[in-house]
Amino acid sequence: MMNKSNLVPCFLLAAGRGERMRPLTDVLPKPLLTIQNKSLLAWHLEALAKAGIQKVVINHAWLGEKIEAALGNGQQFGLNIQYSPEGSALETAGGICKALPIIAPDNYFLVINGDVFSPNLPISTLLETVSRMRADPSKPLAYLLMVPNPVQHPEGDFYLQGTTVGDTESVESEKLTFSGIGIYHKDLFKDLEFGAPAKLAPLLRTAMEQNKVTGEKYTGPWHDVGTPQRLQELNAAYE
Asked: Quick check: pTM over 0.90?
């Protein structure tokens, strides 16, 4: 029987240049770098397929043709993959806005940074969250997976209190780092100019002021694969 929650489309962000990963990214887009001989994108795609997600859209800019050549139409993963090419990278929100006609969500959709490594990512739990968001009369605009602040980002991004994510400190709130994994309502992007670069953080902050952003603290394995050294360490750790 078709589970409505599995009809949530997923957008994978893969358009970044990966400057800090050079020289590795001079010849390969960062999301195709491998951990245990499997690309970062392949780790995500296998997890999405396992959770029953069917439709995936991937944006790309730098060496994007290599991403399409490696992944094709997604048949090898049991997925339907489509692409949103960008002449030059449009930043996160700009890339999402440009891809929205292809993602074509009814309301909510899942977005994952192509360059994070999170084995055991609880996609099924996120799909349950989508069902709850759809039923919520307050119509939240975003749900962010927050993680403990990593060594390279000690100051964190946003404050989490209960399930509310905000930009100002409050009693009992904890400042955490945004994982690059979130659920968004298409309306979050409705005021953006199609094809123009736009950052995600300002949109989230505006939504936070309206109490429209929720989230959770995730303590499972999560890594921002930001440098060649970190990639090397992860390959050793997951041997």
From this structure: yes
